[in-house]
Amino acid sequence: MYVAVKGGERAIENAHRLLAEDRRGDPAQSEIAPEQIRDQLKLAVDRVMTEGSLYDRDLAALALKQARGDQIEAIFLLRAYRTTLPRFGAAVPVETSRMALERRISATFKDLPGGQILGPTFDYTHRLLDHDLAEGHAPAAPAEGAPAPDDAPRVLDLLAQEGLIEEAADGDRPAREPGDITREPPSFPAERDVRLQTLARGDEGFLLALGYSTQRGYGRTHPFAGEIRLGTVAVEFEPEELGFPVEIGEIEMTECQMVNQFKGSAEQAPCFTRGYGVAFGHGERKAMAMALVDRSLRADAFGEERDSPAQDEEFVLSHCDNVQATGFVEHLKLPHYVDFQSELELLRRLRREHAEKTQPEAAE
Amino acid sequence: MATLAKAPPARLSELAQGYLAGLPQAAAPRFTMLRKPEAGLVMLRARAGGSGAPFNMGEMTVTRCTVRLETGVGADGAPIHGAAYIAGRDGAHAALAAKLDALLQAPGHADALRRAVIEPLERERKAARAERARQVGATKVEFFTMVRGED
């Protein structure tokens, strides 16, 4: 039941003034600029772009500042902003085999064309707090070597050439416009394109936990990290009035290709299967978790029993969006006075009836 | 268009001003704004498995702008329109790119503009890219095998 309640305007206004004051923090400290967040808290910005489903570094940095570092609040701000803009159309799919690499590793082959390139990674650091960072410090200039390639073949394509892994194309499905959950509400069962879009903007923590659950036996898929790559790819878009695609910029993105255990049939020799994940910017954990969950959601395609949470499409896709989730969880904070009054009255009546039944003499 | 879109806005503006300032007054171009810089979204797409069926990955901000050149016509005598679609929300960048796009189609400007603006931008971009590629390349793992035993 909804009843309009008035009042509280002054309290709300004052609360927001207090928020602004607290957001600024100690005025003796210099104020943080969105550009500093953009450049120095890059991975926070990347996550906000990925789950906010909007590639714009400056806006994501501003959102983080406004949200006082609360990632989901910042993601919410970005999602709200995007609804204010018209959509010009859809870009040509990015070509990740033409990525200017920042990082590219494979856990399945030691030697591969293009090599294992570590890039700017936390891997192999000792995870000891570095107190030098508490002071101003100037890092040593990066080393230089033979240039990293921008045409390294995808590792899984090498396996596919030998027929050892399923083709990336899903069978002989007719070409059609990919589904778009921002335009049509999802329905179940969902196509893989809709699943991938939903997972791409899904909450990293939720997908991480689900991916982890598949490794621990809840819908196991026996994954190997076939390839993880990070780098920039060109974005091409075909404006209606031009009639040919033009390069409108580039994005940094992360791609993860999982190699999973086999499927085969009477007609088809066994081969490895795939799970795929992407993220805007540098989002390795997210891309890996997404790839694990993508594969586990393909259970039906491989005749696997669906008995674990990570294989339950409706469960995963309906709950992985942190803006939706936070909206419903946090709406519990809003006044439910009338709802609660009616529950309270019901409870009092039930207790009265209970007392009358168990202690009839006391009720008289 | 790719070079104009990816150029750092400040550097693009500097080179373009340099070119325009060097023109005799009579040759200074004039434009009519057909569509003022307008921010919008383009849906980005990737492919399942890298090469499979496309899916929607998320949107990016894009600014577009269209101008008409008032001081010249194309080689075929038709009016020249310049258009820009540029990642981000920088309206000034999009407006300048649209104007330069028009001039790059104008017989009187195209070659000189290419030399004065496009080529330096391409050179600088290539150099920056190459430097980064060398830095990233230095993180490539060189495996070596530990020889164990006598033979």
**Low-confidence spans of chain A: pLDDT under 50, at least 5 residues?**
none
Give the count of helical stretches of chain A: 13
- Report the largest inter-chain contact: A-B, 82 and 51 residues
Please identify the oligomeric state: heterodimer
Could you give a short account of the major beta sheet of chain A?
A: 4 strands, antiparallel
Mean pLDDT of chain B: 94
Strand content bin of chain A: 5-15%
Major sheet strand order of chain B: 1-2-3
The helicity of chain B comes to 25-40%
Widest sheet: strand ordering of chain A: 3-4-5-6
The averaged pLDDT of chain A comes out at 93
Q: Count of DSSP helices of chain B?
A: 4
Into which percent range does the helicity of residues of chain A fall? 25-40%
Q: How much is the radius of gyration of chain A in Å?
A: 26 Å
The overall number of domains of chain A is 2
Rg of chain B (C-alpha, Å): 22 Å
Number of strands of chain A: 6
What structural class should be given to the helix and strand makeup of chain A?
alpha+beta
Give the N-to-C terminal Cα separation of chain B: 61 Å
Following the backbone from N to C, one meets helices and strands of chain B in this order, namely: HHEEEHH
Care to describe what's here?
Chain A is of the alpha+beta class and 364 residues long. Chain A is built from 13 helices and six strands. Chain A has two domains: 9-82, no CATH class; 96-119 and 148-170 and 180-325, no CATH class. In chain A, 38% of the residues lie in helices and 15% in strands. Chain A starts with 8 loop residues before the first helix and ends with a helix. The model of chain A has no long low-confidence stretch (mean pLDDT 93). With 151 residues, chain B is of the alpha+beta class. Chain B has a domain at 1-6 and 33-43 and 56-117. Chain B has helices at 2-6, 9-21, 91-103, 110-137, and strands at 31-47, 54-73, 79-87. Chain B has a three-stranded antiparallel beta sheet with strand order 1-2-3. Chain B is elongated, with a radius of gyration of 22 Å. The chains are: A alpha+beta (364), B alpha+beta (151). Chains A and B meet through β1, β2, β3, α7 and β4 of A and α1, β1, β2, β3 and α4 of B. β1 of chain A pairs parallel with β2 of chain B, so a sheet runs across the interface.
